[in-house]
Amino acid sequence: MELQALRYASMVSAMTFERAVRIHDEFLARMGVGEKEAEAGMLAFLGWDEADEEEFATDVRIVLVSEDFGKELTTAVLWLRDRDIDIRCIRLRPYQDGEARLIDVQQIIPLPEAHDYQVQLREKEQAGRKKRAESFDVRLRFWEGVIALARSQGTRHANIKPGAYQWLGASAGIRGLGFNYVIVQESSMVELYIDRGEAGENKRIFDQLHRDKDDIEDRFGGPLSWERMDTKRGCRIRYVVERGGYRSPETQWPAIQSEMVEAMGKLETALKPALEALDM
């Protein structure tokens, strides 16, 4: 039933008003209804005084009617509604009262009393998806600039494919250790992230590097953030670029990207002797 309804909805969405009237006319003729009733009925249903081809079938509503609905079907309907498909379930229950036949008609999805609330949730989720998509697009464009700069300087990130997430990483040459660029709305970072899959091993490596903290920071030219993160599996050594993040005006991006690439180069140089001396 539901698949047939979806097929019909997709067929109608591709029709012009004129073609829909012609098909409905043919159906009514087989039912013995007079000509022109199809167009009048469709105009009345749509609340139009005259046909509007541009507005016709821009959105399609699906109404499933049955005596009962199984769990698989209701789950599918709820999933479709979460994706902005206007689909609903109407349950018809027939009863016999003496000579009278009665039908109990109930809309079970969406529940009438919950409809407004569900609309609000759906609008909120739509706004969230739009915001996330915009953030992904902005970060992708930001990383493209970082990669272009890294490529021009021949750094280890030169051949990394830019993505849309908050971080962009390349191996430090040791399994589980990576040099990452990190970007958030208002700031950006460069870091060595340590995660070989086992917390104890990660902490051991971090502690060994931390013993050379003074020498590493001297080579870097300033203090670093040493984050052992005892409640988590990984560890990191990070430097925060205060100039800005991906929500900064795009006119400021080249300066932020340049400072990030420069800081990454300094971090790699500062850590190189200690990484080579690791007891692996």
CATH class of the largest domain: Alpha Beta
Strand order of the largest sheet: 4-5-6-8-7
Structure classification: alpha+beta
Counted by DSSP, the helix tally is 8
Q: Main β-sheet: number of strands, strand sense, barrel status? A: 5 strands, antiparallel
State the low-pLDDT regions, or none.
Answer: none
Q: What is the CA-based Rg, rounded?
A: 31 Å
What is the count of structural domains?
2
Number of strands: 8
Principal-axes geometry comes out as: elongated
The amount of helix comes to 40-55%
In short:
The chain contains 8 helices and 8 strands. The protein is of the alpha+beta class and 280 residues long. The chain has a 5-stranded antiparallel sheet, with helices on one face. Strands 1-2-3 form a 3-stranded mixed sheet.
SSE arrangement:
Layout: H1 2-13, H2 17-30, H3 37-46, E1 61-66, H4 71-82, E2 86-97, E3 100-109, H5 115-153, E4 167-171, E5 177-183, E6 188-194, H6 199-210, H7 213-220, E7 225-227, E8 235-241, H8 253-276
Parallel strand pairs: 1-2
Antiparallel strand pairs: 2-3, 4-5, 5-6, 6-8, 7-8
How does this structure look, described?
With 280 residues, this protein is an alpha+beta fold. The chain has 2 domains: 2-124, no CATH class; 129-276, Yope Regulator, Chain: A (2-Layer Sandwich). It contains 8 helices and 8 strands. It has a 5-stranded antiparallel sheet with strand order 4-5-6-8-7, covered by helices on one side. A 3-stranded mixed sheet has the order 1-2-3. Strand 1, helix 4 (71-82) and strand 2 (86-97) form a beta-alpha-beta unit. Helix 7 packs antiparallel against helix 8. The termini are far apart. The model has no long low-confidence stretch (mean pLDDT 85).
